[in-house]
Amino acid sequence: MTTGTTEAGTPSPAGAVDAGEFPLTIRDFERIAAIVHAEAGILLQSNKVNLVYSRLAKRLRMLKLRSFKEYCALVADPEEHEERGAMIRALTTNVTRFFREPHHFEHLKANLLPSLRAQAMKGGRVRLWSAGCSSGQEPYSIALTLLSAFPDACSYDVKILATDIDESMIERGQAGIFDRSTVADVPPDMRQRWFTPLERQGGAMQVGEELRTLVTFKKLNLIGAWPMKTKFDAIFCRNVVIYFDSDTQTTLWSRIVPLLASDGALYIGHSERVAGPAEKLLVSDGITTYRPQGWRPN
Q1: Please, what are the domains in the chain?
Q2: Alpha-carbon distances of 228 from 60, 130, 154, 290, 293, rounded to whole Å
Q3: Which residues carry out catalysis?
Q4: 109-114 LR contacts (CB < 8 Å, sep 24+)
Q5: 35: how many CB neighbours lie within 10 A of its CB?
Q6: Whether the Cβ atoms of residue 215 and residue 136 lie closer than 8 Å to each other
């Protein structure tokens, strides 16, 4: 990490990485990175200095602080849960869209849903989990896939758990309102059947009652305590662990795999891989798709 320069081009104070509107030192960055890692498991490497400055400068302006040193003192206060949460939300990139990595939804529909439909119709429970659900496009895509093969799923014991660390994302997911460009990724027949147009909102649409019934949103920190005791027939944990260090990733996979039903499926992001002891408990069943060890195709 190198010493920066001021806007006038003169050298920054020793140890500073940005001496613009708000002084940011190497020590400040390291303190912020340590808090974010402890709170959310997110790894902020030295190449994220500019991101930290640009994202958190807005918080400093709002709080009327003069430096990142003052901000570090604030978020280090054990009583400042709300501001630590705001900091993590500011530093988290919520990139999502409907039917992102479509091969996973195709696999779910072709390989899991026939047996899950039969299981539900016999009175059994069907549970799916979207871990790191962001603003809801992923769990609603799961629900749409489910409804396309099982239109009366809401009449049975079928539920999708959608969790995220960011409360604002949970609120957006619960509202289920998406603008025109976002819902463009949903096939027209699905939009017509499962969404409701909102008048005077520029083409925005809201998820219908069936989707709301299937999906339950909850705040959950993946590196914290998990209240779930049941096993899941499918777990989507995609493009989440890439923000964690290798030890945290290994721990997370070791916690997830035992929650997978014996014939369930785990879907992960295209740039991710399962590592550690959990890797030996899974077998591949397609692109970034895994089934429990011992599972055999029908």
Answers
A1: 16-91 (1.10.155.10), 102-292 (3.40.50.150)
A2: 37, 13, 21, 21, 22
A3: 55, 164
A4: 109/145, 109/148, 109/149, 111/265, 111/285, 112/233, 112/234, 112/264, 112/265, 113/145, 113/146, 113/149, 113/150, 114/149
A5: 17
A6: yes
Predicted pLDDT of residue 17? 60
Banded model confidence at residue 202, pLDDT cuts 50, 70, 90? confident
97-108 confidence digits (pLDDT tens): 999 999 999 999
Chain-centroid distance, C-alpha 277: 23
Instruction: Please give the Cα distance from 65 to 22 (Å, whole number).
Output: 9
The span from the CA of 185 to the CA of 163, in Å, is 22
- For 68-125, write each residue's pLDDT tens digit: 999 999 999 998 988 998 898 888 776 789 999 999 999 999 999 999 999 999 999 9
The pLDDT tens digits of the residues spanning 22-39 come to: 889 999 999 999 999 988
List the beta strands (DSSP E) in the chain: 16-18, 24-25, 126-131, 158-164, 177-178, 195-197, 205-207, 215-219, 232-237, 260-268, 282-284, 289-292
